[in-house]
Amino acid sequence: MLEDEGESGKITIEEKIEGFSDSYIDFIENCKTESEVVVYLKEKLKAFRYKNLEEFTTLPFGSFFFQELGNRALIAGTIGKDVFNDGFRILASHIDSPRVDLKPRPLYEDSDTGIALMKTQYYGGIKKYQWVNVPLAIHGQAVLKSGEVIGIRLGDKRSEPVFVMPDLLPHLADKQFKRELKDGVEAEEMNLIVGTFAGNADKEPVKSNVLSLLKQKYGLEEEDLASADLSLVPAFGPRYSGFDNSIIAGYGHDDRASAFATFRALLENSGSRYSSLAIFYDKEEIGGFGISGSMSNMIESTIHSILRRVGPDYTMSDFYRVLKNSRAISADVDSAMDPSFKDVHDDHNAARMGRGIVVAKYTGYGGKYSGSEAPSEYVAHIRKIFSDKGVKYQFGTMGKVDAGGGGTVAQDIARYGIPVIDAGPPVLGMHSPCELLSKKDLYESYLAYLAFITEV
């Protein structure tokens, strides 16, 4: 059994992995939306001497700061010895996960059955059939015309109701069975049942009863649902999986596993030569668009705000020099080789669970379309960093060339001229309500990110 020296004596590697995994399980159990992640990060950062960037007039060496972006994304970082000549060491993850959202006018009553339902729209690349007949919770917020924000989180506790989008019973599904798998459940069939009890209203009594309950519990009128961000997420929490407890089964490993590992690495970075930035993006699962996504000007705006406080007389030439001297890791999960579906993987280039963080030289579809590729010099640089710190890593690609593909925030960072490479833990069952992640890979990802931002 390997042992490391800890402050309180000898702590085995196994104990470190177990403790790290326990903390991560607590994180993903309580953070099922990007807004909940931001709240969690802010609370923890403040406890670790981090302050809001707006509170600083200057940023000397050793400063710890964060900046929230609309309660849906966040950037945190530290100031090193020479930010203008060394740039930043950037870890960029995303904190949104595939899910199902409510439409702006969701609530209706089906008069033939006397059932109240809500219309939904899926978010990100999901297999729609995986999300029906699953107990779901409603997380999010509604904003009244007055500006008051009403937080909603219903369905996680055993004492609370859950919500379900029912599928058709197999006894009557002869026509449905003939559909292609991806259309087994169509988007407009993903309707959420929210009530069957009728109120006293003459017209749509079941819908009226649901509206009455929303008014009593949250103070909401029907139109308030149009100015709400309400998401359906699995009502169940994460659990250890396997006879050996080696796997974490849960929702949102993509990409909150990388985000958590990034966050913990950032907290360990104290007094490093290099300035560091940890970026927690939103909207990655739908292409990075929007004010909180990687396609926004979030990174350049934040760097400008930082440089104004480091050197008030900085010029645009200084700004571009900082970008040129920066280095980045796109901290995102990758696909693990699935033992039941090996035919979609290239055996020689597929990542395996339990063998460490996956380094992906490039992403994209087919002929590397819509992806990002790290130059070979930078790949060698990352190899050296990980090797010098004893990080377990493996190289991998998502699958066979024409079997599909995917992208990350890497290409949006690369457009600033910053060398970037993808690296994250491998995951099975990605984009489903219950994904599988190795505890060892999660911990090695943390060690890899820490090695990157503390390189000498």
Can you tell me about this structure?
- The chain is built from 11 helices and 24 strands.
- With 456 residues, the protein is of the alpha+beta class.
- The radius of gyration is 23 Å and the shape is globular.
- The N terminus is likely disordered.
Task: Output the CATH class name of the largest domain.
Answer: Alpha Beta
Q: Please tell me the total number of domains.
A: 2
Classification by helices and strands:
alpha+beta
Strand order of the largest sheet: 3-4-5-15-6-16-22-18-20
Shape type: globular
The N- to C-terminal Cα distance equals: 29 Å
Can you identify the CATH superfamily of the largest domain?
Answer: Zn peptidases
Radius of gyration: 23 Å
Output the CATH topology of the largest domain.
Aminopeptidase
Q: How large a portion of the residues is in β-strands, by DSSP E?
A: 25-35%
- Helix run count: 11
User: Helical residue percent?
Assistant: 25-40%
Largest β-sheet summary: 9 strands, mixed
Mean model confidence by pLDDT: 95
CATH architecture of the largest domain: 3-Layer(aba) Sandwich
Number of strands: 24
Uncertain segments: 1-6
Oligomer: single chain
Which secondary structure elements does this structure contain, and how are they paired or packed?
Layout: E1 3-6, E2 9-12, H1 13-30, H2 34-47, E3 51-52, E4 64-69, E5 73-78, H3 83-86, E6 88-94, E7 99-110, E8 115-123, E9 136-143, E10 149-154, H4 174-177, E11 192-195, H5 205-218, E12 228-234, E13 239-241, E14 247-250, H6 253-268, E15 275-281, H7 298-310, H8 316-325, E16 327-330, E17 334-335, E18 357-360, E19 364-365, H9 376-388, E20 393-395, E21 405-406, H10 410-414, E22 420-424, E23 426-428, E24 435-438, H11 439-453
Helix pairs in contact: 1-11, 6-11
